[in-house]
Amino acid sequence: MTKKNATVRLIHFLVGLFIACLALAVILALAVPIGFYGMAMYLSPTLPSTQEIKTANLEMPLQIYSSDDKLIGQYGNRLSLPITFDEIPEDLTHAFLAAEDASFFQHSGISIKGLGRAVTEVVTDDDSQTGGSTITMQVAKNYFLSSERTLNRKLTELFLARKIEDELSKNDILTLYVNKIYLGEGAYGIRAAAKKYYSKSLESLTIAEMAMLAGLPKAPSKYNPVANPSRALTRRNWIIGRMHELGYINKAQHDEAINAPIGINLYQEKLDVNMPYLAEMTRSALVDRYGEQVMHGGWRVRLTVDSKAQTDAEASVLTGLVAYEHRHGWRGAEANDEPLENFRRYSNMSPAKVTKVNSRSFEATMPSGESITVNWSGMSWARKYISADRIGYFPSNASQIVSKNDIIRLIPTANGGWQLGQIPKVQGSLVSLNPETGAVRALIGGFDFNHSKFNRALQGWRQPGSTIKPLVYTAALEKGYRPDSIVSDRPIQVGDWKPKNSDGRFLGDITLRRGLYLSRNLVSIRLLQAIGISDVRNLLDEFGLDKEKLPTTLSLALGAGQATPLQMATAYATFANGGHRVQPYFIEQIYNYNNKLLFQANPQQACALCFNDQLDEVNKKLLEDYELKKENDSNAVDSSDEKARSKANSSNENPDSDIDVENGDNTSKASKEMDLSIYDASPESDRLKAPVIQYVRAEQAPRILKPRVAFEMADILRDVVQRGTAFKAKSLGRDDIGGKTGTTNEAKDAWFAGFHPTNATVVWMGFDQPSTLGRREYGGVAALPVWMDFMKAQLKDTPHQWVSINNRAKSKKQKQSIIEMIDEGVTDLEDEDADIGKSEKPVKTTTQQRQPPTPKPVEMPESTPVAKPTNNSSANSNSPTQKPKPLAPTPVERMPTMPE
Hints:
The chain is elongated and about 145 Å long. Helices cover 37% and strands 13% of the residues. It starts with a helix and ends in a 22-residue tail after the last helix. Helix 4 (135-144) crosses helix 5 (151-167) and helix 9 (229-245) runs antiparallel to helix 10. Strands 6, 7, 8, 9, 12 and 13 form a six-stranded antiparallel sheet that branches. Strand 20 and strand 21 (749-756) form a beta hairpin. It is an alpha+beta fold.
């Protein structure tokens, strides 16, 4: 009985235990989903909306082109080229599924096996070939979350993956994944990676190449085929094996892909011409306006600058700087017995180490390891530098110049030899404008951008010296003076100030014309006294100089204020175009990545009437030329394809051909052209292919000088060349050029500002920290030769022409009024000459202590908020508060909005 009772109790206990375990199992079974659901409800309000990831943004570098379509600059390393689901090759989809998530189309965003692997990875830091997250979870992480490996982040990823699965289709999720995933080398998404690693479009990729890309998401740096080719090859082959195992490819495809080489053909863009000052000026202006994202928007920006003109300008400035260095002597080697690799090349000056010094020559090693010899003719200039005003005797042997192990600079010569050089301490800049439009034709900011990034053409505020005198004399002509008016060149004293002429002589009574072309200081001062400092400052403000940087004393007549080379070029353009104020600009067109025109500049013209009369003919000619070019390009492609096929067939028929296609040595033109059909996403495919340009009607630039005044001043400045301080320029053999030399006190700045009716160019030379250039370094010695060298190339084959005295634009000078603002209204106090006519610009006003303080001028390009693009209407552009001031050239009058 006792035994039976014990058995019954045991059965009851076991049944109870079974029921309890069953209940516990049911509770746990309900608790997990309830808990999961509860956590989901808790996190749901904090999860982002999937609508935010419906589209991916295109990202491509910003490219900058010259007006003749030479690539001169590129910024940004991010590539992202979104595609649609239908554009994804099936084999590429299979490769990613095999590598990352084979059950992607079966699960609901979360894979139990994958979750287990993920937990294991977090705990053990395991590094297996397969990933721990599903593709949906990776989308959640890439678009919304950080890459930190914590349990909290992983739980958020799980819930966000479920939300994505509920709201998006599998095709949408996969498309988001392949567009966003980072694949190394700055490439985001598969299309960008195909371009970056193989220079190919997606449809041109082989199975092996697709598998290589599919292996990158797990660890782009670790499996990078460029940095770690052997490791990348191992992972690629594993993925190919998985593709065969899952039935995506057959045995033959598997074997072919396994045996394929890595075959990397990196996307590497090369500049056609390196123009860093212009490129950086463009980048800075666009970033100021749009922010850093502009460097990844894929824009192609075409400038107004022709690459040939810019190259000529660079060569002219460099020649002038080297000539100055030769005049002032050899400062010695840069260093001695230091590693050559520590010294970089600047401009055309290569570093070299002296290895042997002979009597009249020396030998040196170049960075490439090449050994060269510098003969006596390449170093005999090197008299010892003592000061800006003194140099030593000519050397008699090479040992007086260099020693063994010296680090020196060498410049290649035209005959294939080498010349000793040194990095200039003096700097120079050049600005060239189209006087009709203000378009920048060339701009040099200094000796070498890598040596000094400071752009002296835009940011170099220096005393303009005598180059300001023509502007002062122009004010006198506007007041009624004539070129033959008599002005005294006798001594003058103003307080304690006793100014004098540069030669110390006095010429008595002379004509205004002669006073300018001989650059007589006392004549300039007397003219300024007669017409009034205030009126002259106002006119200089109209010319484009900054009024706040001009003195209010008579020293203004001698150039004691401050101006930039760009401002002076803008002022002298007024003489070249007959009296109109043009606004300098340098961005001509902006295109997007698909070569769609986003912006085309439409500057105010010095003669809008002339431009508009020829507009139809110009547009018709542009269209005809464009169609002809398209036809020629098409014929050239057809011809090259035929030649390629012919040569390929010939090569196949002739096994003894010396063309080695495999190693690339002696590769024929045909094979290169055939390669282009394979590497169809190379840098060449991304170059600007601009559609035909069609111009629109232009507006008239404001007239600031009477036609007669502009002509008379241009004629006087022509005399400066023919019989004045710039007489050296007569060697150009032209009588249709004019200009003015400029030298400041102690020769701290040397200028030449000159023009032809088609070109206004200003050259400046000096030290960044103002100090004397030397006793005899006048503007006509230091700056004028640079101008002549540049203009000789620019005016080649240009027919003779000169500034017209006629008002070809039919424009009228603005009417100047001085008014008094009183409580009862506005009272007109004074008018200019009645024969001027109605003003094209709003009347300037002078108020009595009611103007807000003038803001301080800035030296960098002005930025305009994206949300408030500038208006290009004539009313706005001519209003007193928006009068253009060329502290820097404006990119354009109206810029496109930056795409989101």
